[in-house]
User: What shape does this take?
Amino acid sequence: MSMPSESPARPRPAPGRPKDPAKRAAILEAAEDLFLEHGFEGVSMDQIANRAGVSKLTVYSHFGDKDALFIAAVERYCEVQVPNALFKPAPTTPLRPRLEGIARALYALMSSPEAVSGFRLMCAPKRPEPGLPDMFWRAGAGKLQAGFAELLARRTAAGELDIPDTARAAAQFFALLRGDVHPRLVMGCAPPEGFDVEAHVQAAIDVFLRAYAPAGGGRQAR
Assistant: This one.
């Protein structure tokens, strides 16, 4: 699938050319800040280069185009908020504490000003470039849901859950965590009066475990 580009001709990195991790991090941080401040269309590669203190050629060398840089910034932010380690195999950790750790991190990400701004950007009256919303979803919520689905598959195989479709169950878990609070935040509303994040997280886990509890209660976590 062809993706939108900022210009018809873009510098490409030389094969095997070493990259400077510090410059890459600076570029990602600058891109994240500028995209949040001005939206995708309102930011140029020149602005990102200036903010990061590097040349535009360096930005292109690391990321190729603005679309790739935007998605890399989304991935970086999600990885910082919800580390991949949360979904790695940990068979000695009981199921509920695993779900609690994941749920707290996911809710903090979903409700963060940066994530809320990203969703607003994708839903803005001026539609983003074709393909960008799909890339945004795959780099953020889609990637996290896939990691969670793999964890659910392992726990199902261990007999702790009874889930015939782990991808669907992962999406349902995320939906339980979003509840009505995430749409409120995207619209600029405050959470419901007296809203308790921990109670919300525990209630979402309760519903999920009741829905997918194996017959007879299943086996203990290994």
In short: The chain has two domains: 21-74, 82-217. Residues 132-157 form the longest helix (26 residues). Residues 1-11, 218-222 have pLDDT under 50 and may be disordered.
